[in-house]
DNA sequence: TTGAATGAAAA
DNA sequence: TTTTCATTCAA
């Protein structure tokens, strides 16, 4: 760490409309419930209870065609393998791909897609990203609940002989600019 | 098996 | 601090 917290480049937005936050339409359908094994005595009240995880405004997941969940890479890794809990970006990316907002029809290269989605992620307003962070947090809680004893154990000597990673194809700057434009348009165009 | 992104957590 | 790995699927 250190004094390099200047991780917030241009984000002045002096005239950002702040998106009309459509109040959380979540009545009592999602009432807070204590876990069965949790005794009221041990309940620690979190400073900020963000129980309600609102749906993203900019890039909502497609309501249709989203039931068949593939086991991803069921090969390799024994069935005992517990996958890491997905972080906010991974969740966002998955949703983005599934939604087919821009995927496989125009770009089949997932590496490029990752670039576009990454740029889109950075262009997203803070509020929107926070929603995905909340989702990630929730996923983490579920993960902990499902595998309480899970712990991330990265293998050290994994990357082969530390050989040079050969790049398949570096995205040309021209295409890079195109990606940036796409990402920008994606966010701008999704604004209400 | 790799690439490509971001982020959480381990070493 | 650096490295691993979570998702995703065409090469």
From TrEMBL:
Domain of life (superkingdom): Eukaryota
Cellular component terms per the entry's GO annotation: nucleus
The HMG box domain, residue ranges: 82-151
InterPro entries: HMG_box_dom, HMG_box_dom_sf, SOX/SOX-like_TF
Keyword hit for Nucleus: yes
Region described as Disordered: 62-85, 145-171
PANTHER family, per the entry: FI18025P1
Protein known as: HMG box domain-containing protein
Organism of origin: Paxillus involutus ATCC 200175
